[in-house]
Amino acid sequence: MRRALDGGYELDDDPARIDADAVWAFLSTEAYWGRERIRADVERQIREATRLVGLYRGGEQVGFARIVADGRIAYLADVYVIQAHRGRGLGVELVRFAVEEGPHAGARWMLHTEDAHGLYARFGFGPPDERYLERPPAVERD
Fold it and tell me: Which one in 24, 92, 99, 110 has a CA-CA gap of 20 to 30 Å to 117?
């Protein structure tokens, strides 16, 4: 599924177009949530994702979102737009395309964010209810 945006940008969920090198470059240097990952894990996460969304301009990947879903529950991860392309509403369009226009639009969505609560609130994301529990990785429990 593709969607053209103003300014020559395009959203596409064709996994063959995803530039794993670009994803790794951003996650390993710019993303607070990705700096501790190793490249092999990022490549595996890309391969095993349910859906991948790329944001492109002139053939260059300038944004990304990864979705893991089972039909009822969907998890949104690794959402970014590179710095040079921010401030144009592209993050909003990327999230809209990933969450509302994809095959998992009717799912219960989850995500983790440290600094983008306002962006995700526009799409109905909010604090979980009392039924939600989370188990941190073993390294955080020790």
Answer: 24
- 14: domain CATH number is 3.40.630.30
CA 43 from chain center: how many Å? 14
* Distance, CA of 45 to CA of 140 (rounded, Å): 21
The count of structural domains within the chain is 1
Spatial distance between the Cα atoms of 4 and 56, rounded to a whole number of angstroms = 10
Residue with tokens 């990327």: 94
Give the structural domain span for 10.
2-141
**Nearest CA to 9 among 101, 81, 79?**
81
Q: What is the pLDDT of residue 136?
A: 85
**What six digits make up the tokens of 2?**
């593709």
AA letter at 70: D
Q: What is the mean pLDDT of each run of 10 residues along the chain (142 residues)?
A: 97 98 96 92 98 98 98 96 97 98 94 93 92 82 54
Do residues 82 and 62 lie in contact, with contact meaning Cβ atoms separated by under 8 Å?
A: yes
Residue 127 CA to residue 101 CA, distance in Å, equals: 23
* In the block, residue with structure tokens 């993303």: 31
Identity of the amino acid at 67: I
